[in-house]
Amino acid sequence: MVYKNRPDLVWWGTYSVPLNTVGRWSIGPSTFWIERMSNEWKIIYETGDNELDTFLDVSLPFTQSVETVPKAVITRFGVTDTDETIMLTPALADRPVVIHSETPFYVLPNQNISFYVSSPVWIIIKTGNPPVKIIDMPVFRPSDTWFGPSTMEGELCYASKSYGRLKLEDIQFRPHRAVTVVLLKNQTNQSILLKSLNLPVRTLSLYESEDGYLWTQPVTLEMKRDSDSADLEIKPRAPKEAKKPKIICEPREKIGGNILTQALYRLIK
């Protein structure tokens, strides 16, 4: 099978890998080769520099040599016997993702603004019956960033080059990123400058839509009047913009209830 850079086709799912066969998954800026031997799985990983690459190509079997791939990272996994079935699943990042605004963006007093952001996904590879996880790694590893008011208070996050768009049609399809609908409610009497948004992706479910896009649950951020805190609400289902969505991955971290009240600096700055 070969998929060629089409948003209505996907790279995840269950694949049959015959013995002594290699498959290749080119997803955005990165390429994975997965090789099955009698007692070993070998994963070869190479990534490019363009985080926003849109390329998609899946080839199984892959008949060209992969022994001389430059800058490749090779990882081997030993088992008693390899199973022919392998499962690839996208997942959201294992830390919060900080979305930076391309230009200064103000939310005016007593206004509600919806916009769309995207964040990088990880790839989880499993095999066997019952399935055993081989690896859980980013398709493209984002850079680290610290989010908080000081070096003593805050948390380690990932930085994303995604910029908030006010129209869905301005979000370009990228096979290694998931789209989140964010509703900002400014209930204060002053404009709020949004330079960065701390997106809590560990607590979000991941969905696939019939056109190949990946979506998360929508997020609502309500900034309260006369308060240094904000309510963060996670909606219980996929956004209405997703076409016939199906859940594909549960949150990495379960939370009690759908509303969290946090200090405002933990969410925006």
List the main descriptive attributes of the protein structure presented here.
51% strand, 2 domains, 269 residues, 6-stranded antiparallel beta sheet, single chain, disordered N terminus, 21 strands, mainly beta, 11-stranded mixed beta sheet
Topology:
Layout: E1 2-4, E2 13-16, E3 21-27, E4 30-36, E5 40-47, E6 56-59, E7 73-78, E8 85-92, E9 97-107, E10 111-127, E11 132-138, E12 143-147, E13 155-160, E14 177-186, E15 192-199, E16 206-208, E17 214-216, E18 219-223, E19 229-234, E20 246-249, E21 259-263
Parallel strand pairs: 9-13, 14-17, 14-18
Antiparallel strand pairs: 1-6, 2-8, 3-4, 3-6, 4-5, 5-7, 8-10, 9-15, 10-11, 10-14, 12-13, 16-17, 16-20, 18-19, 19-21
Written description of the protein model:
By secondary structure, the chain is mainly beta. The chain has 2 domains: 2-89, no CATH class; 95-120 and 143-266, no CATH class. The chain has no helices and 21 strands. It has strands spanning 2-4, 13-16, 21-27, 30-36, 40-47, 56-59, 73-78, 85-92, 97-107, 111-127, 132-138, 143-147, 155-160, 177-186, 192-199, 206-208, 214-216, 219-223, 229-234, 246-249, 259-263. Strands 2, 8, 10, 11, 14, 16, 17, 18, 19, 20 and 21 form an 11-stranded mixed sheet that branches. Strands 1-6-3-4-5-7 form a 6-stranded antiparallel sheet, with no helix packed on it. A 4-stranded mixed sheet has the order 12-13-9-15, with no helix packed on it. The relative contact order is 0.17.
